[in-house]
Specification:
With 206 residues, the chain is of the alpha/beta class. 34% of the residues lie in helices and 22% in strands. The chain has a single domain (3-204), classed as 3-Layer(aba) Sandwich (Rossmann fold). The chain has helices at residues 20-24, 26-36, 51-54, 73-81, 98-106, 128-133, 161-174, 192-204, and strands spanning 3-6, 12-18, 41-47, 90-96, 113-119, 141-147, 178-184.
Length: 206
């Protein structure tokens, strides 16, 4: 069930795919966005049942554990777009980790979003930066971030995340997309709510 936060009739609508961990931090996230911007907004938090399937743009083998990545992102985005039919509103899609990757992928599929707020996105996902290189997003605003310890892992796929996020940033800049890459202190699990808040606030401020 979709959870709504903030000013319900605000002209700026933030859309975030969430799991239980994200929901626990939403009060912190909301407070930080409000601290960073004077703009009224509504946040739609959309729970995801199967993170690896519902947010993955295409299939890929498991990176941790035994659960492979599915290709449910298209179906998920179809449902999200049903929430974006008010032309008087400005929609921003964002999220953390795989939800951040989904937000980044989403702006390549549709021009309905003002921007993507991709906090610590899983750009290590196989083939994703190649996908970015071959096309341009349908938005001019993309926020990227990463923890400065995230690439220091023994997992060879995930250890590439630092190189991939730098690559993603350069690709977007070369295409004339307004983008920033913010480096946060700590590993992937530190301050997720605050990092996501800064991502949304940056896009709101453009």
């Amino acid at each position: 069930m979709i959870k709504r936060y903030g000013k319900q009739d605000a002209l700026v609508v933030l859309i975030q795919m969430v799991d239980d961990y994200d929901l626990e931090g939403l009060a912190t996230e909301m407070a930080e966005i409000q601290r960073l911007t004077d703009t009224e907004f509504c946040l739609l938090a959309i729970p995801v049942d199967n993170w690896n399937k519902d947010l993955s743009p295409w299939t890929a083998p498991a990176v941790f554990g035994k659960e492979d990545f599915g290709d449910g992102a298209k179906e998920t985005l179809t449902e999200i777009l049903k929430l974006t039919n008010d032309n008087t509103k400005s929609y921003i899609i964002g999220g953390y980790s795989l939800a951040g990757l989904f937000a980044l992928w989403a702006v390549y599929q549709t021009d309905v979003f003002k921007g993507a707020a991709a906090a610590s996105p899983s750009v290590w996902f196989p083939g994703f930066t190649d996908y970015m290189r071959e096309r341009r997003p349908h938005t001019d605003s993309v926020y990227l971030s990463l923890g400065d310890k995230e690439e220091k892992t023994r997992n060879p796929v995930m250890a590439a995340v630092g190189d991939r996020i730098r690559e993603a940033s350069e690709i977007l800049k070369s295409q004339g997309v307004t983008t920033t890459l913010e480096w946060n202190s700590g590993n992937h699990f530190k301050d997720a709510a605050l990092r996501t808040a800064r991502a949304f606030a940056w896009v709101i401020g453009l």
